[in-house]
Design a protein that fits this description.
The protein is an all-alpha fold. Helices cover about 70% and strands about 0% of the residues. It is built from six helices and no strands.
Amino acid sequence: MLQPKNFEELITQANQVNLYNKLVKQLNKDFLLANIDLDFDEDILPTSLKFLLHETIFKLIQEKFAEYLNVLYIIDVPEHKIKQLDGSDIVLLSEQVTFLILLREWQKVWYKQQYK
């Protein structure tokens, strides 16, 4: 698996192997496990998915930091990658975390498909 460098590459890879819907399902599953009220429709456009996820992460960082950390733990975003981010601009931070979440979820979906 080639590691996507940005959101567009990630979505392109997911669509090429018809796993975009499974990516959305995995996001829904993990957010449900974290008790976060976020349920994406399986037919959501990738741009809408990114926007809504970014908005949710932004709000979690600002208002519910413990839940934010719980989401990162449940999704299994690598701690060292979070520590590498610059937290001085919360909008930029939440955008970068959104990509890390999508990337980790994509890895889960891809590996499940490869080794099922």
